[in-house]
Structure formats: C-alpha cells, structure tokens
C-alpha cells in the first residue's frame, strides 16, 4: 500500500498572500505544492490583461511565487501543479522557463491546455453542442464572448506527472483537479476508481480556497488562534481516497470539523458534486477530528461523471456606472425621492433610455444616531447600456451638478463624476466531454488526453445517516441564529448558495425541522422573489440553500453591494429567532 501523499495549497485566488508558496514549502514536509488562481471573475480579468498584453493572460503572481521557491522544490523533490496558466498556460510556462534560466535551474515544465473554446464557440453553438445551463438566459451573443473555457479534469495533469514533469501549469481545470491529479498519479488510480477519485475531489474542494479551511472567513472566528495570519492547508490523501486535512505546526489558524464543514458547503448545490472525472456524493462524507488541527475525511462515494463538461463564458455585456449618494438625518425617504427627481431632471437620459437602471435606498441609518455615519443611508443608482456614452460622464455629471440645489446634507459616497466601465456577463453552459480533450505539452511534444471517462454502473448509493431523535422543544428565547449555527456563502454564477451547519446533533435536529424555504425567505426578505432550492446534509449536520438569480448575470454584472454573496450567510446568522432555551443553556 502506497504512503499517503501530502498536497499543500498556496493560493485560493488571484491576489492571495504572495508569501503562501514559501510558507508551505519551508514550513513543513510536503510532496506537492498546488494553488488555485481561477475564479469565474478571474477569467474575465485575464481576458482584459490578454487584450492589452498578448501572451500575458496568466496569473503573474504565480510566477513571482515560483521565483521564491523553485530551487527549494527541486532540491526536495516537491512537484508543483497550478491552474495559474489561465488563458495562456503556454505563456505562463515560458515565463517560468525564463525564471529558471535566470536562477540557473532546469526544472521540467509541462503545460496543459485544450480548455479554451473561444475559436470554437460559434461553431459549437451552431451545432447545438454548446447548451446553456439555464435555458431562460441562454447563451447570449456568442460573438461578444471575451473568454470561453471548459472545466477540464485531472487526467492531463496525471499524464504530465507520469512523464516526469516537475512543474505542471494548466488553463481552466476544476479547482479540485490540481489535487486529484497528483493523488491519482501517486496512487495509480484508474479512471473507474470512483470512490477514490471522489475522495480526492472532496479533499481538493476543502483546501482549494487556502485559508478558508484553516479558520479564515469562519463564522466562529473568535475561536481561531492566531487568526490575524492563518496558515494555509494541506491534504494527506490516502490510497482509498480518504484524507486528513491539516496545516503546518506552529502556524496560526484552526483545522476543525467546523472549519472543514464550512468549506465543504462553499459554492455547492445538491448532494451530487458534478465534475469531469467523477460525481462526488457530498451526502456520504464522514468527518472526524483525529488530532490537534487534523480532520479525517472518509467514506466519500463516487459515481461516473455525466459525460459533459461545464463551460464558463464571459460575454462583453456593455458598460455600467454606479453612483452612491449619502442621504442623512431626518426624512430619508422624502430626500431620496427628491434627489432622484433632481437627477433625472438634470440628465440628458431617462431611466427608460438605459438597458438597465436600478435605484436602491439602503437604510444604513439609525434612529437618534450617535455619529454622522450612523445618521446616513445610501442611495445607490446603477445604469447599464451597450452605449458607453449614455452611462458615462453625462450620467454621473448630472448627479454632481445637483450638488447645491438638491437635498440638505448632499454629498457623494462614490467620489466625483466617473466614466462608464465595461462589465462582463457570465454565461455557463455544457459541452460533450468527447469534444474537448486535454493537450499535454512537454519536452517538445504534444499528447492528447481524452476527457471522456468510461461509464460504469455503480448501483444505488445511499446517503450517510445523520442525527436522529426528537426535535428539541420547550421554552424559547429570542436570540441570533448565529448563536448556535455557522454559515458559508458564495457565488455560483448568477446564483448564490448559503450553507448553514450545526456543531451538535440536537442543534441540527432543530435546524432541519425549522429552517424551511419559507422561513429562509422570511429571514432574508431580499430572497423572497427568487427560486430557492434546499438540500439537507445530515451527515454534515448542515443545510444548503441555492438562491437562483440573486446575482443577476454573474459577479461582474451584479449591482448588489456584495456582488459575490460572501456575507449572505452572516446576514442570516444575525437574524433573531426563537431558539429553544435547552439548546442555548
């Protein structure tokens, strides 16, 4: 039986802690260094970088990190696998080669591509092979795409490592693929080892967001030691796909059943976590604390993948402008009406002239305010149009010009007049996996690696049972929901997910019986007009809610102040409910 492989994470997004790679390489023993740079929004950002600097559509911070640790990784036999190649993995590999030459090193560098469908998108759509996730939103205008990338799986990475690569750079692969690939190579898994692959995918999902598994963004943050600088996580993946999540000794942060549960709920949907290599059943996962800052994940079952790959497209939606006006003191509602009337009277364009116009009064003001800020509400005005002229200074100047003839206490929270800026619309779709193979470029040659996995009947997989017993009842006391429960929320394209979990069995029994979709809508009124799905995960003592459409056409297009829904869960925790006294005491 092979020894477990320790795979460490040094980045959760493009902009994460630059010292992460050095900390993970120098902080303790690891076998593989990985990192995730590619959020959905990042692909849009990289498309703009590439448009200005052809050949530079990759995460430059990864190259900086490798300059810091490349020598140490080669000396210690640490492999590096990263999706930082973004829209130009070949350009990223070339940049790494330049660094290696400058340092006098000779790593074997491979890059994996095939995910970029920009040149094929029109033809795939015309043939009916590119199918929108949401038929109501469709594919949009395919000719206006600025990026179109399929989520490839782990087998291109496996091929590169099997060929002897020291560093593997990919384009758009799934976040978990950079963990699943090294694990599959190390343990010699076959494409039909569904349970092992599913376990590795779960481990990859847990560590993909760096500090979010080690106490970062954690609801119970007051329990996290050294929370000002948490260490990043690693996963020891065993031959059967089970894993132990941990962090280097002596670093800040916390790895607990709570932190791992919280991250498991991040950006998921239902019980089946779909991927290109395996469908992972999150309702079969078992968690167990096995030591200080050590949590074992086991029991994960896997099913064959669907045969389709997810494709993330970013369409140039047009231009937008967002202005925020302070509305202070008494008569907030009347002042907001007056300010808007003055704006449209001064503007050469009216609300109906824009493709989209949203006006929202955010009541951040308090009664009998003790500070100027506590007396102030926010009037947010957002306009979008394909005509940059409409949403530019003609719009923002109109608001500014009313400054001495509008509401008392007039001032802007968004600065002076601003020009319109481009925004992207996120368009998720599916494409048959057999049409999008991976290409592994290594040692001057290119190898094709099929993305299609063999289908194999696995039979019925049952959910792992959770707590049982009567629902706690008796006298209640009004208290915030977050007194007992943690949450984790985030964006899923135009949707948002909100996972909420209990840390004790009886708390979960109450939560499952009480937090229905109707109660969820009542507690979060902003969600009341959207379709909501609810999934129970008794094995994790958790519920997950998916709110469809709350983020409009994706992060870049959303006009919510929290466009990625990161704080949606904390809002829910802040709501007061009647909690059984026996649970509180």
Summarize the structure.
The chain has 585 residues and is an alpha+beta fold. The protein has 16 helices and 27 strands. The radius of gyration is 25 Å and the shape is globular.
Tell me about this structure:
A hairpin with a 2-residue loop joins β23 (486-492) and β24 (495-501). α1 (20-26) packs parallel to α3 (60-76). With 585 residues, this protein is α+β, with helices and mostly antiparallel strands. It folds into three domains: 5-115 and 151-306, no CATH class; 321-425, 2-Layer Sandwich (Alpha-Beta Plaits); 476-584, no CATH class. It is built from 16 helices and 27 strands.
- Give the strand tally: 27
What is the approximate shape?
globular
Q: How would you characterize the largest beta sheet? A: 11 strands, mixed
Specify the helix fraction band: 25-40%
Radius of gyration: 25 Å
Keywords:
seven-stranded antiparallel sheet, 3 domains, Alpha-Beta Plaits, eleven-stranded mixed sheet, 585 residues, alpha+beta, 16 helices
Secondary structure elements and pairings:
Elements: E1 5-9, H1 20-26, E2 32-35, H2 40-52, H3 60-76, E3 79-82, H4 89-103, E4 109-113, H5 121-126, E5 131-132, E6 145-150, H6 155-162, E7 167-170, H7 177-187, H8 194-207, E8 233-237, E9 243-247, H9 257-264, E10 272-273, E11 279-281, E12 286-291, E13 294-298, E14 301-303, E15 308-328, H10 332-346, E16 356-362, E17 376-385, H11 388-391, H12 393-401, E18 411-412, E19 421-432, E20 438-442, E21 445-449, E22 476-480, E23 486-492, E24 495-501, H13 505-514, H14 517-523, E25 532-537, E26 542-547, H15 568-574, E27 576-580, H16 581-584
Parallel strand pairs: 1-2, 2-3, 3-7, 4-7
Antiparallel strand pairs: 1-8, 4-20, 5-19, 6-15, 8-9, 9-13, 10-11, 11-14, 12-13, 15-17, 15-18, 15-19, 16-17, 20-21, 22-27, 23-24, 24-26, 25-26
Helix pairs in contact: 1-3, 3-4, 6-7, 7-8
